[in-house]
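Page header: ASSEMBLY MODEL / two components / 955 residues total.
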Amino acid sequence: MELAVSDNDKSILLEKKNVLNPSVLDKYRLAGQITQTCLAYLTELINDSYHLGKHEPYSIAELCLLGDSHMKVALDSAYKNQVREKGIAQPVTIDVNDVVVGYSPEVDDETNFKFKAGDIVTINLGCHIDGYTSNLSHTLVIYPPGVSVGPLLGSSADAICASYIASETVIALLALSLTPEKIPQSLADGSGLIRGSTIRQIVDSIAESFNCVVVPTSKVRRIRRFLAGQAEGIVAERDFKGVVWSEADQELKLLKKSPKYNGSQELAKYDKTRSARVTASSAVPTDDFVVSPGEVYTVDIKMAPLQETEGPGLITLQAVDNVTGSNNSNDAFKPRPSVFVRDVAISHQLKLKTSRKLLSTVDNKLSVYPFKLAHLTSGFPFDLSGDIDQQLRSIQQDIKPARLGLVELVNRHLVVAKPILRARFVPLQVILNASTSTGVNGYDAENPVLPGLELPLPRLGVTSLKLKSLLKASKEIPVAREQSTVVLNGDNNELIRLSGGLSTSKPSWVHSKFQLSGNVAQSVNDLVQLTQDQRFGLKIKECQPMKSSN
Amino acid sequence: MSTSRPQYTCNSCSLAFSRPEDQRSHMKTDWHRYNLKRRVSQLPPITEELFNEKVGNITITSEGNDIREGLSGVNAKQMTKKEQRRLEKEALLEKKKQLLETAKRRMISSNDQVPVHDDIKAERAEVESLPNDGKGKPMLFDNTQDQANDVYDEDWKTEQLIDQKIKNKVEIPSDTCMFCGYVSLDLDGNIDHMFKSHGLYIPEMSYLVDKAGLISYLSEKIGLGNMCLSCNFQGRNIESVRQHMRAKGHCKIPYETLDEKMEISEFYNFESSYFRNTEAGATDTDEEWEDLSDDGAGEGSEDEVSTDDLYTNGYELYLPSGHVAGHRSLMRYYKQNLKPDRELTEGQGTLIAAETRHFVQPFDRKELQAKKRVWARQEKLKDINDRRSAKFINHQAHYRDQLLQ
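Prediction written out in full:
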């Protein structure tokens, strides 16, 4: 590798800068506040236009740009001349129904659309100040216009319930790690520690009781300064700590359900570190970790309901773009990738002047977080009180030259397009009938995943490329997602919830026909009681959105 | 028989003897040996008188050698021609060294403010005197001779030579071509003629202040010194040197090395080229030039113009405009087109620090070469093995009839 950082710098950047001191906490808190404010702003826009009919509804592209602008304006006024790097850590993406992540169309994208009643809409955004990042996702329901029509019913409602309850439960679990003496009887395993496996187990049980599946790429992970999961699959970061759900977990569960499996048999062992192409095994995610105070976590739970599916099957993800499969599929949803992230380890002498200019802008003006081309135009951020249509049009013009340069950057792997992923249900029958003639060594380089997870179905020996080809026989499935960032402040044993929470991410009015049952119901009830008990329970503080200035 | 034809002869010397004793005694003489040697080298024999004369001559020269050798006591006969030549050469070298030393001593003793070109001229005169001295008395150089006496001797000889030169001097006027004697209208016409017909190019024309002086100096060099302008050829007279210069194309003023530049520097004034240094007096400048010639610094010409806003650190010259001129010896480094070092921001640094991906290793030429050598050796061994085993393909220990199988 050409670039290298000295050991001294390495320990400063990876360890010392991540120690939670008051100034770091302030930065986290402010980042959290900005994300909360932005979510509140977007929710208000959607409610006003779609539910209350106060103005003409905005399309997704417009909402995304407005959200970005709102965040950017707030960031510009924060920590002026005090920090070198601050900005949008996750451009606003609005994922509707089966879209899981990454849909943030530019204004001129052909797929750009407006919501329909009954859609479940996930708003996903994030910002960072000096690398201290706060990410946030929340799923809303679009109701028919008018007031008080009733709750959302059906499979989407199950997913929303499951994701909300799971994320709140995980946050309570993380808070418990600060005060291990308060671990309730239903959760105690005698060690007094909150482990990755504890988190996985409780999330899986919640999903099961709501007849849902935890969608691959869901994760509860520790984040660090500048390492907030924005480059997952690109940077194989050392000392990865977190629970990551993948297709392999669903596969394991399905195999265990098989009538031929008698419980004592040992399933084929699979060593994740073997397939991972990394220099340190700590980059491969495992559940074998302990949550400890002083860390910052992102809880990102995505749930997909199995209500409308038949028979056993897997929930997997399909990357969509404007090129792939354009010849033999009549799928109309062909969005152009619009969110890109710089791969800083790669350097290349570029040919086009526009691409060199774009690269230097990305390297100097933006940080290491994902960006959209619109962020680089002169008209950004918007004057939110001015003529928005006019500004949108000018941005559309400004994007064109940058897009030319971007092609070379992408071709040279200097920047990587963040994939737009859709959730797909593939029946197990289809998978079992397929054979992977190429063996299990192939992997999909186009859609990078975390190291060690290159092979989606290791026990069945199905590669990601094979699985991709099986998606023709798949069925789309809605996904609900809740993401929030929490700081485990060990100094006064409190959990600071940077994003999400009741102040902004109040769950929509839904009604699921399922409810928690059995052991998990007891655990979740205990946890809820602890969070609500002001005196003896868990101390959880939420970042409130800023008072609106206009 | 014995009377008519003597029985005892010497074929080498074409002699006959009546008695065998005579013959034997003859055979023992040097004369006979000499003739024998001559016979071997297919030369006719010589008579006894001639031989004796020759022997007499050699004895005289060998005696002379003995005298010259003095106390050394080395056998004169042992000295070969080669050794003689070497000795002569050494003596000549010694003499040259002495001459140079005396010249140096004289320079030190004389006033420091002697103009440079005078010095050069004097030195040249001494150098000119060298070959003549060598001709005058080729080997008679005595180490024991008194130094002062020697200096005096040298001076006297130089005087003599200069006198002779002055006697032979041909005055070339400024409007006459120094190479062919063509008479032009004036000095400029003459310069024009010399440029067009002989290709005499006068360097740095714009800084030349004493044109007539330069031409008269060059003319004197040819007319008085009979010296070629561009090589160290010295003609016997003005015609020979003119012919040499025309034939060899030496009608040019050499202007490459510092010495060559210094030779004609008194006719030039470069002050106008040091844009800010004009306030320095003329005498100062002269002294600076003097210093420069003493130092003999080749490229350090920036040092002289050391004002506040124009300075150098030896490799870079800082101009008042703010530009920095690099030294040409470092040109290869300035010329290279390197990518500037990438300055990582904290975010990029963090990502690089946390990175554990495998990257393609840079291509290592040495490693590949070593590998190639191993492969080549393996191939060769395989080939040898194949050839060896091919010999035994049809080898059967015992004959087996195919039909009987």
